[in-house]
């Protein structure tokens, strides 16, 4: 057979079609076209949504074992946590029941003793709930304004407390609002009682020696029995605060050999930062019975100013 008549084309099984370079150029151009069309005309959005809907059951089926594992572990952890909380709640309930029984016993004994000694029952303070509106503009003071005033029965001198203890005292009253001076203010003072030693003293706001925000006891004798950690409460003898309200805890006691006084810094029991709701108490002096007329009449009257300013003449000797 002549050489020119031979068929040199590969059999159909080994046909490769277009060359690899042609395929690369074609698919690169197609990919570029699809990207531009998708960005400009959103042509592939329906196709993408259809594929997502079709793959959703597969995704859910694949995620079922993971969800079952996470749910089972979470259930077991929640069950253990619930059991621990229930056990803690039972212990706390038992402790509260014991404290309640002890409190009832003490209250009964207190009532019996008061009846035996014919003493008057303790005064229960009337309260008014209030909300803090804003802080005073003076940067050198620690004062806030509440949304209760004269129209709500708030009077000047009313103690202001929260669930942790004493916060301050009402210093100015308006018809619909009132100004409250906080314990951290440098002009604040309150009579306190040390529960450990039953020693009375006066706690002042601020710290004149360091200028820091806090409280301190001034003019405390250097050999006084006061220690860090002592709890201070209201004494109830100032006629303003009911007795037994938490005021502060002794933070540090500095005794100097060269001075006659100790420097006692306090940590207030109630913090005013982030506070929103407070409770305004009626001053204790307004709830006490009036002083008898005989006692008022027997009190010494102050001398007039002209008598205090006039020097007394000494008797001349003959």
Short description:
The chain is α+β, with helices and mostly antiparallel strands and 318 residues long. It is built from five helices and twelve strands.
Task: Name its key features.
six-stranded antiparallel β-barrel, Thrombin, subunit H, 318 residues, alpha+beta, 35% helix
Description of the molecule:
The chain has 318 residues and is of the alpha+beta class. The protein folds into two domains: 23-121, no CATH class; 127-291, Rod shape-determining protein MreC, domain 1 (Thrombin, subunit H), CATH 2.40.10.340. Helix content is 35%, strand content 24%. It has five helices and twelve strands. The strands form two sheets. It has a six-stranded antiparallel barrel. The longest helix has 73 residues, at 45-117. The chain is elongated. Mean pLDDT is 79; it is low at 302-318.
Topology of this protein?
Elements: H1 20-41, H2 45-117, E1 127-135, E2 143-146, E3 159-162, E4 165-173, E5 178-182, E6 189-194, E7 200-205, E8 215-221, E9 231-234, E10 246-255, E11 261-268, E12 277-281, H3 284-287, H4 293-298, H5 305-309
How much β-strand is present in the residues? Answer: 15-25%
Q: Work out the count of structural domains.
A: 2
Q: What is the architecture of the largest domain at the second tier of CATH?
A: Beta Barrel
Return the CATH class of the largest domain.
Answer: Mainly Beta
- Radius of gyration computed on alpha carbons: 41 Å
* Intertermini distance: 179 Å
Helix/strand/pairing class, anyone?
alpha+beta
Work out the helicity level: 25-40%
Q: Unreliable runs, pLDDT <50, ≥5 residues?
A: 302-318
Number of helices: 5
> What coarse outline follows from CA principal-axis ratios?
elongated
Largest sheet: 6 strands, antiparallel, barrel
Q: Strand order across the biggest sheet?
A: 1-2-5-4-3-12
Number of strands: 12
The H-and-E topology, N to C, reads as HHEEEEEEEEEEEEHHH
């Amino acid at each position: 057979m002549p050489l020119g008549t031979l068929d040199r084309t590969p059999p159909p099984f080994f046909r490769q079609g277009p060359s690899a370079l042609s395929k690369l150029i074609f698919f690169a151009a197609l990919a570029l076209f699809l990207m531009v069309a998708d960005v400009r005309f959103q042509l592939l959005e329906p196709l993408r949504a259809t594929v997502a809907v079709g793959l959703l059951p597969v995704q859910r089926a694949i995620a079922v074992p993971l969800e079952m594992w996470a749910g089972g572990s979470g259930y077991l952890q929640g069950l253990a946590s619930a059991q621990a909380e229930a056990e803690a709640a039972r212990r706390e309930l038992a402790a509260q029941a014991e404290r309640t029984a002890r409190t009832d016993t003490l209250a009964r004994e207190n009532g019996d003793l008061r009846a035996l000694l014919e003493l008057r029952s303790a005064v229960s303070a009337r309260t008014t709930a209030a909300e803090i509106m804003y802080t005073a503009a003076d940067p050198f003071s620690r004062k806030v304004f509440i949304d209760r005033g004269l129209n709500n029965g708030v009077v000047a001198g009313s103690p202001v407390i929260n669930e942790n203890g004493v916060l301050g005292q009402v210093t100015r009253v308006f018809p619909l609002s009132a100004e409250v001076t906080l314990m951290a203010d440098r002009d604040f003072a309150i009579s306190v009682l040390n529960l450990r030693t039953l020693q009375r003293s006066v706690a002042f706001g601020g710290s004149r020696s360091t200028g820091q925000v806090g409280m301190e006891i001034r003019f405390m004798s250097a050999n006084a029995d006061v220690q860090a950690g002592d709890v201070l409460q209201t004494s109830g003898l100032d006629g303003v605060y009911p007795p037994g309200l938490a005021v502060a805890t002794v933070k540090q006691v500095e005794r100097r050999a060269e001075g006659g006084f100790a420097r006692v810094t306090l940590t207030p029991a109630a913090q005013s930062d982030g506070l929103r709701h407070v409770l305004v108490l009626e001053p204790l002096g307004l709830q006490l019975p009036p002083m008898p007329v005989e006692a008022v009449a027997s009190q010494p009257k102050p001398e007039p100013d002209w008598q205090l300013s006039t020097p007394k003449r000494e008797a001349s000797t003959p």
